[in-house]
Amino acid sequence: MSQIILFTLLGAVFYWISKSYSAYQSSEYSPKQFQNFVLTKDRLAQSELGLFVALIAKVAKADGRVDELEAELISNMFNDISKLFPDPQETKTLLKEIFSIEKEISNNIDDVALSLYIVLKNDPHKRQKMVEFMVNLAYIDGILSHSEEEMLHKIASHLHFSKEDLTFLLNQFGSLHRHSVKESSISQSYTVLGLTPEATNDAIKKAYRALVREHHPDIIKAQGASDEYLKIATEKVQEINAAYEMIKKARGI
Length: 253
Fold this sequence. Notes:
The protein contains 13 helices and no strands. With about 250 residues, it is mainly α.
């Protein structure tokens, strides 16, 4: 029972992060601001939201890979940003392209961060919220790697976000995630996926994908589910993701 509670806490933390970003975006941006935006990949990439996505890509890839929890959080962010533009689907496609390109480039982080600072020079609140999201993203798996921490310090410095404020955020969110993302028993992880430890790697991947499709909030939302049910579905997906990540680490896959 304690392991189920831990998985539920992980889902709750993930849901809180996603909702916090959605609330922030709703307060800072509106579709009216982008109604005349000429949507091209280059223009989107040079906008404050495009530059933000580029930095998110670098933080997500800082430890060498983008795991399922990070990908899910980023996907939710893409959904929120896309809704601001007249053509949400095309916007989301371009955001994914920007993300895919930028996560593979490691030598332009200074230029991207400085460009974002120039755009948001007179808006410290936006810069703070963006740094907060990046810290949360780095901690979403419960562990802040040395490479992630170094990158966060570099980005924060370029955004004129003080070292003291960043340290405070790292301690604050680090404590939150460390208390929410715990090492659960492997046997419980298999139970979450409806499997036994004897399952093959292919069977594990197949079960994981099927469960995510079954409970994914976007699919549930399309079926007209209530906000409360969407919250439950989000927490379930994160429970599934956490179990899958634990099994993958244990098996080295």
